[in-house]
Amino acid sequence: MLANQPSGTDPDCHLQIEPCDLPDGIQLVYADDRDRRHAVALEDAAAIDFGRVRAFRNPPAYRGQRNFPGWWWSATTRSHVIYESWLVRHHIIEADRDIRMTGITGKPFELTWPAGEKQIRHVPDLFCRMLDGGGIVTDRRQVSKAGQNSRHKSAITSAACNVIGWDFRIACEPDPVWAANLRWLAGYRHPRFADQHLEVMLLELFACPQPLGEAARQAGDPIRVRPVLFHLLWRGRLSADLGRPLGETTLLTACTDPLKEA
Question: What is the arithmetic mean of pLDDT over 130-140?
């Protein structure tokens, strides 16, 4: 569970996955740092360093499209992660804030398998490397658009990840208030907002629950204090109910450093 997860809500909305058998001939294909394609058996995929691969596919960009592709600067990797939609971007933000993550890669590889005379191909949205060495593959899916074809591909992807030793998730739309708060805090994810002296002062100030606005004014100049305060919220050193709109009356509480608990 992430630090600052709002009580009573589930920001990581995940759909159920139907079990299935793996098709014969399934392979994983990835692009190395020189954009050369390599096909490997599933049993060999766990050894690949996806922190050094290129995005297997760049999302299309054209006038009038309904989704919004782009690049997210990750505080975890100190590099940009590609995304195909704002829904994917949200789940990149979730991963970027989770201190258990050590790597985040967008469009990391392609799974391909034969189906009669056709070759089926699927490129998942995200791959995250965990602190314990494990991996999480994520596909985003709007509930209203989860058709039979996409459900079948997700079932195959889940079974393939199980062989490799990775977790697989289908992530859908998050709670809108949680998502808006997280986007705001993500604006303060960069290490330049860290201030050791002021952080110590704020953590002492919020040892007991305090309203954001009143306590921030006690700490000094709001222009200097608030960026550091939001940076601490992003890092999980301060806790709040982010299932409610973040504002002057939001109660904040100091937390144990999540890095020490990881």
Answer: 91
Q: pLDDT tens, 212-239?
A: 998 889 999 989 999 999 999 999 999 9
CB burial of residue 82 (10 Å; 0-12, 13-18, 19+) = buried
CA gyration radius, the chain: 20
Which are the contacts of 224, defined by CB distance < 8 A and separation ≥ 6? Answer: 195, 198
Structure tokens given for 151 = 């459900």
| Dihedral over alpha carbons 43, 47, 48, 52 (to 10 degrees) | 170
> Which one-letter DSSP state was computed for residue 174?
P
44 closest CA partner among 21, 26, 57: 26
Tokens of 214: 């009143």
For 67-75, which contacts have Cβ atoms below 8 Å and span 24 or more sequence positions?
Answer: 72/96, 74/104, 75/189, 75/190, 75/191
